[in-house]
Amino acid sequence: MSLAAKKLRENISEYIIFLWQMEDLLRAVQFDAAALDEFIHSYAPDEKAFESEKKWFAALVGSMRNDGVEQRGHVSEIHELIFELNYLHNTLLNIVRDKSYSDTYLQAQPNIKEYLIRTDGKSTNDVEVCLTALYGLMVLRLRKEPISSETEAAMRTFSNLLAKLSHHYRLMKQGEFNFSLN
Question: What is the CA radius of gyration of the chain?
Answer without folding.
Answer: 18
